[in-house]
Amino acid sequence: MSHLPTVKLLINGEFVESTTSEWRDVINPATQEVLARVPMATAAEVDAAVAAGKAAFKSWKKTPIGTRARIFLKLQQLIREHMKELAAILTAEQGKTLADAEGDVFRGLEVVEHAASIGSLQLGEYAENVAGGVDTYSVMQPLGVCAGITPFNFPAMIPLWMFPMAIATGNTFVLKPSEQDPMVTMRLVELALEAGVPPGVLNVVHGGPEVVNAICDHPDIKAISFVGSSKVGTHVYNRASLAGKRVQCMMGAKNHAIVLPDANKEQALNQLTGAAFGAAGQRCMALTVAVLVGDAQAWIPELVAKAKTLQVGPGNTNPDIGPLISCAAKDRVATLIAKGVEQGATLELDGRSVSVAGFEHGNFVGPTIFSGVKPGMAIYDQEIFGPVLCLMAADSLDEAIAIINANPNGNGTAIFTQSGAAARHFQEEIDVGQVGINVPIPVPVPLFSFTGSRASKLGDLGPYGKQVVLFYTQTKTVTSRWFDDEASSGKVHTTIQL
Ligand code: NAD
Q1: Rounded to two decimals, what is the model's pTM?
Q2: How far apart are CA 498 and CA 489, in angstroms?
Q3: Which residue spans traverse the membrane (predicted)?
Q4: Which of 120, 136, 349, 472 has the fewest other C-beta atoms within 10 Å?
Q5: Is the C-beta atom of 179 inside 6 A of ligand 1?
């Protein structure tokens, strides 16, 4: 195994080999080829990364806003120049198509661009004469060492949701990428150093539960951004909050679409197909449930016909659907499909037997559609994270809204309709944080923030955009009075006069 490349840690500006004895393979999900080995960092290595961040914070927080911003101007340029290379690394280790991989990098790039102008969102406020001769002003100061823990499904975008915003606002950072696909993240980190991020300002450790727990417990880490499953996110939120940290967790989902019979059928079915099966369903904003209202229930055969046209194959040939991340993920999805049949849903299209010539060992599952799905079935109650679409039926828009509001998750939702009144009613009544109107995957650009809600999120503030500036800073208010020596001579102030 020694011929395999190893994924390095980044500590204090140096890419270093871990001294751990625990390693796992990074595997190409289309071929099972082992691409590299990733270390499960030791406790001492986590400590060293945090210590580097703590030391670097002393000068980084005083680095002028413009100097910090220009690093991200440079980084966005480097990412653009390396787009094809980054996408190729991502596809090899994660499986998604090259087009999707470029999209993954691009959505992160937008956050880097935003980080380059963050100064305008980190301004304080000033009120003159809050009492006679007394002024109050506020400043938004960086917190110190912040940490990020990221999932496998967007290994470029999600690290880029985190470290550019944390660093641009004056913090230092320890990143823990997904151990399943850390290589594209590391290439982005190399580019960040090339763009001018100083030693210690950005550090990277790799690992699984032990490293995550060490981050949650570490007394010198002030805030943690987590993106991943609800189970792990809830654990991280509870553990790190108990340790006194600020925590934000973006977690699992079950995103519903409502299809009204007045929708533009062709567009609605195309968008639904793309949003359910694209990226093999491994998006936290995938549309995994469609509630067909009234006459739209007759559209199932056309939906199935469209899904059947999707090409499944290795991501580097740019099919419609690549493989799932791991053999375990494929087994889990297949088990859930079997459970759906067992629990009485109608299997309209079965993707389990898909076979890709020349890639017989790839983790492929084809588009799968169930109708007659009900709460209580495992395929409805669990996030499948595969190319499986569940269809439900409702007689009215209000009945469809009630189904969605009764589901605990609140990441995203969409409605397909040509009625402005119906869309407005939906937008007002739906209890989900990100709403699309004839837009299937309504992830906001970084001028806003990612605003998943209810069981899909813990913590008040979202990642990137305006909200994360509040998350990564502490507001300090200063109330000041300056004495005019002559006017105040001889007076002794013993009481607070506000
Ligand atoms: P995951 O929860 O398994 O892993 C996320 C991170 O937690 C990884 O870095 C992993 O190493 C670590 N981890 C895994 N098990 C752990 C444990 N027992 N204790 C401590 N740390 C642990 O998630 P994943 O499978 O990599 O990603 C898919 C999940 O992420 C899906 O549920 C998806 O919906 C969610 N997700 C959510 C969003 C969002 O914005 N809401 C975005 C992307 C992905």
Answers
A1: 0.96
A2: 20
A3: none
A4: 120
A5: yes
